[in-house]
Design a protein that fits this description.
The protein has 67 residues and is an alpha+beta fold. It has a single domain, classed as Glutaredoxin, CATH 3.40.30. The longest helix has 13 residues.
Length: 67
Amino acid sequence: MRTVHRFAMASDMITADMVDSAEYPFLAVKYNVTGVPHTVVNETGAVVGAVPDMEFAGEIIKALKKL
């Protein structure tokens, strides 16, 4: 979540919310979360696991291209 929040602090065009899948199991099912970290990007992409910042940025760009 640190990476996601750093990106959100760096750009007004990015927002980040952190959700505990144990408290919101319906969201875990909706987004097929089976482990953490699991970052959903605009409901079109996902980053599973801890990845370096540059790889994370690449995944965000891929998800945005799907819009």
